[in-house]
Structure formats: C-alpha cells, structure tokens
Design brief:
5-stranded mixed sheet, 28 strands, about 45% helix
C-alpha cells in the first residue's frame, strides 16, 4: 500500500492542471488460461495492457503524473518521445514532465491478475477448471489494469478492446463485437475511471430487452443481459432479475425525466466479489451469492431486488453526475441507498421495503454513528485509504435515512423536481454538496443551509423520548418530546416526526391517534395530542420519518414487555424491536431481557426480514452482551426456543427455514447436535423442511465446531458439492474445528501466507471465530497486535481490512483486551489513520459489549 495512496490535495492540484479528452485501452487476457508467462513461476501471472490517453494541460511546461500499479512497464511514450520506464515509473506512478498544451501518453505495461477482488480478478472454477475474469475498481483500482488519472473528477470517454481466448465472450461498458480475434467496444460517454469495467470468460449469458415510449415521438430501447458462471446456470433465475430491472427502469424514467443514458444494461454475477455490487454503467457487477443455490426466504429476494435498484439509481446519481472527490461520496451512495428502498416499495412486489430499511439498514447506521470514528455524512476524506473506509453505515444507511427525512422536510414533489434539475444541470459533470442544495432550495423554497449544517455536516445520533403528563381524568395534559445528544456530538437537530398513540383493542395494540410535529431543541411540546385518552404506548418517530434512536417512557416500555407481539402494524412493531435493540446495545436494557422478548414474541413475527434480524440480534446479545456467568443459561433458552418454533412453524414455510437456521446457530447440547445430525442423514424429519445442499452446510458447521463431525465428514460433504460454493463452505468448516493445531494452521494461512483468495480469507476467518472456542482463541490476542502493522503494510488494502477487522480478539471480551488495545494504540500513534480507525472501532465494540455485560450482571443481582 505505500506509494499507492493519492491525497485529496494531489487530486485537486492535478484536476486544476489537466483535462482528459479520451482513453483507448487495449488488454490482452489470453494469458489467463494455460501456463504462466514467467518461466520460474515466482512472479504474479500478468497480462498486457496498452493505454493511450489524450489530455490537455493548461500550464504548458508543467509536470504531473499518471497512475499505474503494475509489476513492470515495457515502454512509455509522451508526445512521441520515448521515456525510460526505469526513470519515470516507480511502481505506482508515471512521472510526466514538460507537458504540452495537448498531449498523448502511451503506456505499454504488464499488469497482474488479482486474487483479492481488486483490479482484474481471475477465478478458476474448481468444478470444471474454467477461468473467469472481471474487474472491480472502486475507489481506485482501475490503475491496476490500465494507466490513467485515477480520480473521479477527471472524466473522459473510453474505448476498450480486449484480446481473449477464442471460446470466451467479453463484455464492457459499451456494446461490443468481435472481429479478427479482438473484442472492440463502443466509446462510452464521459465517465470516471472507477466505473469502467471488463468481464470476460465462458459465462452463461441470458438476454432480454426493455422498451419505453419517451412521449416525444421517440422510443427508448435498452438491450438487457444477465450473466453468471456456467456452474451456477441451473440456479439462475434471470427472469426475476429482468422483471426487477424493467420495473426499476420504468420507475426511474417516470420520476427522473432523464432517459437512461448508457445504451445497454448488462448485469454480471461474478465469483469472489468483495462488495454487494458495483454500478459500472452498462455492465453492473454483483456478488454471485445473489444467485440462490437452495431455498431462501423472501428477504433474500427482496435484498437482491434492492441491490439491483440501488445500482440502477447510480446510473443517474454517481455515473451521470459524479462527486468531485470522495468527501461527497454520499452524493451517490446515500441517494442510491434511499432510492433502492423508495423504488422497491413504489415499483415491485416488495411493498414491505421500508420495514426492512427501518429494521436492517438503519441498524447498520446506528452502530456506525456511535463509533469513535463516526463522521458527518459529508466526510473529510484526506486520501484514498480514508475513502476506502468510508463506504460505511454513515455514507449509505444514515445518508439514506437523512434523505428520507429530507423528503418529509421539503416534500416528495420538491425533492424529485430537485433531482430532475440536478441531472439536467450537471449531466456528465462533477458536483459538490452545494450544487445539490441549490436545486433543492429552488424547488422547495426552504433554507437548505441550516438543514445541511445540522444533518450533513455534524455527526452522531439523537435520542427522542416521549414525556406524558396526565390530568385528573386520565387524559393527556401534556405530551413532550425530549431530544438528547451524546457529549461527543452535542448537535440537537430539527426532526420532522410522526407520533403515534397506541392502546389495546380486541387483543391487538393499535394506533388510535397520530400527529406530525417538528421537534427541535432539547424539549418540544406537542399540542395536537393534548386531551386524548391515555396511551399504553407512545411511539415517537412512528412511520420512521426521521433518523434517531427511539426511547420509551416507563408505561410504554412496560406495555412492550407484555404486548410487543400484539402491535398490529408491522412497521411500528419493527421500529419497537429496533429501539429495544438500541437500548440493549446502550446498556439500558439487560441483554437477558432482550433475549426473553425474542423468545416470547419472535414466533409471532409475520415479517420474515424482521424475524431474521431478531435471530441475528439475539445471537449477538448472547455472544457479546450477556454476562458471562449467564451465557450457558441464555444459550440453552435460545436453543430450546429455536427448536420449539422450528416444530411450530408452518411446514415448508420460510419461517420454518429461518428457525431451522437459527436452531443450527444456537444448538448447544448433545440432543440438539443429534437432531442436526439426524436431519443430515435422514434419520430425523421435521415435516416440510427440505434439507437442501446449502442447509446441509449450515447444519454441518456447528457439528464440526463442537466436535460432533470431523474432517472425513467434510470430505464426504465436499464430494456431494464439489463446487466453488462447496469449497468455500468446506474451508470455513475446516477452520471451525475445535483444535489448537487447526487454529494455528488457520492463523498461519491468514497472517503468514498470501495463498488464499479474498473469498477464502473471509471463509477462514468466519470458521476461525467460534464463540464456543474462546479458550482456544485466547493465545491469538497478543499475536494479533504483534501482526497487524505488518499485515497492513504488506497486503492489499482489501485483504488488510478484512484481516484487521476479522481477527480482532473480540471474543476475548475482558478489560484486559481493552488494555492491550489501548497499549497498541498508544504505541502506534503514527500508524496509518485507516488502520488506527479499524482498531479503534473494534475497541469501541468491545467496550460496548462489556458495558452491556455489566448491565446484565446488575440485573441478575437485582433479580
């Protein structure tokens, strides 16, 4: 990583000096198959990359640089002058001196195939030996594939050509055709380097088309394509992908009044992908896990649809109009995250999308916004390492939540009209915060400056708590909302909220009164609800209009303890669950109480997404927040509850599947493991439960981790499922075995070796970290702190981040681990800020867990 880090100041200086007219990029990837091209096999496998860049310099005679990360450069030519690669190329940059007003740079390089998902990733399918390639660049990895000016505001048109094996197909951003053994692609519109893309290999490819009457006598026709590895083709439900795609294109054309500008629309589901997806115009890439090999719940299909729509929204927010620098990453990610749910509810079968948003996406935001590394939505991004870490819950989910609040603040029509003007005014250009605020001020007539200062330029999450005073007749004399902020981020924000009053009617907890109010400052009196009958539950932020932590008065909290499952409205119920989880994380509700609520009411939860979130939270509560002496009891209660609900669920239902998975996670005694083994070998049956291949791996991991299945069982399972997915499952399960030798081997593979691909690094870490194996993992706490500096300096940033986050000794949850973390932080105050940030975040999660355990212990003493 040293030398690869571009600073904001360097980018601004270069953008002030240069403008780019176009790129011609020629890649030869025939070396992806067959023998390596280096004789001794010691270096990386490489491919030839020849780039021609035409650019202007407004200060002739000045110097600048191009970006390239490559093992070697064969030749460099600037304006017809041959430059010595040894003098001008340092491994990451090409020095360009004495520039003319108009320039042409030609770079012929040997670039390396990636095994970490950064640059041009090469994957060999173990099932059939086929090789698959794809690129992934965000924020700055296109320089691993071709020479360029790697920053978002130096946009240009691109022309790609690719030489590939004869039997392959190649895709890029533009339409392509093959002639004389070369794939040539149509020139793109002006786009940023990080959203160019190439996918190549023997992919399974399905086509469709989208047609729309634009209303001006013209018809828009968009060729559609969807592709995946041949091994996944039997599982590929491309028709549903195309359905969501067409619904999304209809929705965005209806609302954006700017036709899709990038020609075709291909969607590639690729192996070993680091992200959920990437918005390359004309060629969106997705992780192939969105192709489901077994039965999944509706939530999985909803999540995939949301991601498809999120990436589609980027065609306008991010690709057509792009942020100038990564400070304003939110200008694309927050909007895409919001638009994903907005269009999901407005255009598809997943009308429950806002429930999932409230329950899942915002949980990510709340966690991120309470870390010591929290930052304003418009962040201070000093360099590319900062940028890499800011693809986080603030930029995505908090930003989207704030946009939902903005829609409530300015109105839906003004918001959408602002977007339409923004696209037309800045098409193919770059923007900053002020550019968006100015159009919203025009369309809404509101002062956007004060709103932006509060919501976009400050960090932290507010808590809103209702205060209810009753009169002698038992009616509301006064209802107020108290707003609090943490000392570290004391901003009290203006909130547009709905406040709901609930009471029990015919066994259901229903809303009988509602009002909207502007909450501002430390205490706001809501006059509209005075005189109403006393509520059993007051829900501040009903309908989830704003971004805040919901708190409860004592009456409301008592009601939830007894009647949470009776709340009739699924969104209101989800908001209450989310609020209770925040109380648990904040050490205001004992973890044992949260688990008791899950055990009492989760079986009645109708929304499958909420149910699966409750399972994740309950497991997290047990692992991190329950006082250690109570863990065994909590584990037993969760396992018994999961088994009870598994048998009670409707046979064959998605709820039954969710409970089966949760039972596998929580099983903790011989009877539970015997049931899992019986389900695997067919000697036990749960009516309606189909144990497909994915569920088999789910059942096998806890058996292996607790010593009830061994390496031979894993070999047998791999023989049943010798696929790329099966290999990942096997690697995870191998690392989960309860043996000191196994843990030592896994540690060495992760920390001392670079043999594992990105996907297998993730699988090994997941298997290594077993909550039931805290004692086995104890020796690795000190090894972690001794290793992470070297890992950060020697590995790619993606792999380094995965290891630093994944191997932090969070299961050694004692004050001693906090002390060891403090010691490392104190001794490494000059370590790269991005590395320190990851360690500090892990420290904070651990400290939060210890506070939760103390709260749980106090509750036990009181009990």
């Amino acid at each position: 990583m040293p030398g690869e880090n571009l600073s904001r100041d360097e980018a601004r200086e270069r953008a002030a000096l240069l403008s780019v007219d176009g790129y011609d990029v020629s890649l030869d990837v025939r070396s992806a198959v067959g023998d390596r091209d280096d004789e001794d096999g010691s270096g990386p496998r490489t491919f030839r990359s020849v780039t021609t860049i035409r650019f202007r310099c407004n200060e002739p005679g000045a110097s600048s640089f191009a970006d390239l990360v490559a093992p070697s450069v064969t030749s460099v030519s600037l304006n017809g002058r041959d430059l010595d690669p040894g003098e001008v190329f340092d491994g990451t940059r090409i020095l360009l001196e004495d520039l003319a007003a108009e320039n042409e740079l030609v770079v012929d390089a040997r670039c390396a195939y990636s095994r970490t998902g950064e640059g041009l990733h090469r994957f060999v399918d173990p099932e059939d030996g086929e090789v698959y390639l794809y690129t992934q660049y965000e924020p700055a990895d296109s320089r691993r594939v071709f020479a360029n000016f790697e920053q978002p505001d130096l946009k240009a048109p691109f022309r790609f050509e690719v030489r590939a094996p004869e039997e392959w197909t190649v895709w890029s951003n533009g339409e392509g055709e093959r002639a004389d053994g070369v794939w040539r692609f149509a020139e793109t519109k002006p786009i940023s380097t990080y959203i160019t893309c190439v996918v190549a290999g023997p992919y399974h490819y399905v086509t469709d088309s989208y047609t729309r009457d634009l209303g001006d006598g013209t018809t828009l026709e968009i060729p559609l394509g969807a592709l995946c590895r041949k091994g996944l083709a039997p599982h590929f439900d491309a028709e549903d992908v195309f359905l969501i795609t067409k619904q999304g294109l209809d929705f965005f054309h209806d609302h954006f009044d700017y036709p899709y500008p990038f020609g075709k629309y291909d969607q590639a589901f690729v192996p070993e992908y680091n992200l959920g997806a990437m918005e390359n115009p004309g060629l969106v890439t997705f992780r192939e896990e969105y192709i489901f090999r077994g039965k999944v719940t509706r939530l999985s299909y909803e999540s995939r649809a949301n991601v498809i729509l999120h990436e589609m929204a980027h065609m306008w927010f991010g690709d057509l109009v792009t942020m100038e620098w990564w400070d304003d990453l939110w200008l694309k990610e927050s909007f895409a995250d919001f638009m994903g749910s907005f269009s999901l509810v407005g255009a598809t079968r997943f009308t429950e999308g806002w429930i999932t948003f409230a329950n899942r996406r915002k949980a990510w935001a709340y966690r991120a916004d309470q870390l010591p590394s929290t930052h304003p939505i418009t962040a201070d991004i000093r360099d590319l390492q900062d940028a890499k870490l800011n693809f986080d819950g603030i930029t995505y989910a908090k930003g989207a939540s704030v946009l939902k609040q903005l829609v409530a603040y300015v109105g839906r029509d003004a918001f959408l009209e602002g977007a339409r003007r923004y696209f037309k005014r800045h098409a193919y250009g770059n923007t900053r915060l002020g550019d968006l605020l100015s159009v919203l001020a025009e369309t809404s007539g509101r002062d956007m400056g004060a709103w932006a200062r509060s919501w976009l330029q400050t960090a932290g999450v507010n808590a809103l708590t209702p205060q209810v005073l009753l009169d002698a007749q038992g009616r509301i004399a006064e209802l107020a909302v108290v707003q609090e902020a943490p000392e570290s981020h004391p901003e009290l924000r203006p909130h547009r909220v709905a406040i709901g009053l609930y009471r029990r009617e015919a066994g259901r907890l229903v809303r009988y009164a509602r009002t909207e109010a502007d909450v501002d400052g430390p205490r706001t009196v809501v006059t509209d609800l005075a005189g109403r009958e006393a509520p059993e539950l007051v829900l501040v932020n009903d309908e989830d209009l704003t971004y805040c932590k919901i708190r409860f008065d004592e009456t409301s909290l008592d009601t939830l303890r007894s009647h949470l499952g009776d709340i009739a409205d699924p969104l209101a119920r989800a908001l209450c669950w989310s609020a209770l989880w925040n109380l648990t994380r904040d050490a205001m509700l004992p973890a044992r109480d949260f688990i008791a609520l899950v055990l009492r009411f989760a079986g009645r939860e109708s929304d499958i997404g909420v149910l699966q979130m409750l399972h994740a939270w309950a497991e997290s509560a047990l692992v991190h927040y329950v006082a250690p002496p109570l863990r065994a009891t909590g584990a037993r209660l969760l396992a018994e509850g999961a088994e009870r609900e598994l048998y009670a669920a409707e046979p064959g239902s998605e709820h039954q599947l969710a409970w089966a998975r949760f039972f596998a996670q929580t099983a903790e005694d011989q009877a539970g493991f015997e049931l899992l083994q019986g389900l695997l070998d067919g000697t036990s049956v749960v009516e309606g439960l189909e144990v497909d291949q994915e569920l088999r791996w789910t059942f096998l991991e806890p058996l292996v981790a607790h010593g009830y299945a061994d390496e031979k069982a894993l070999e047998a399972e791999l023989a049943r499922d010798d696929t790329a997915s099966g290999r990942r499952h096997q690697v995870r399960c191998l690392a989960a075995r309860p043996s000191a030798a196994v843990k030592a081997q896994a540690w060495a593979q992760l920390v001392e070796s670079e043999d594992l691909s990105n996907a297998l690094v993730e699988a090994t870490i997941a298997g290594f970290n077993q909550p039931s194996q805290r004692e086995l993992l104890a020796p690795y706490a000190q090894k972690y702190f001794a290793s992470i500096g070297r890992v950060w300096s020697e590995r790619s940033i993606q792999i380094a981040m995965t290891i630093v986050k994944g191997l932090f000794p969070s299961l050694q949850d004692s004050p001693q681990t906090l002390v060891e973390t403090d010691v490392w932080l104190a001794a490494h105050d000059s370590a790269p800020p991005a590395l320190r940030r990851l360690v500090l975040e892990a420290w904070d999660d651990l400290a939060r867990g210890l506070r939760g355990q103390a709260c749980d212990a106090r509750a036990e003493e009181h009990h």
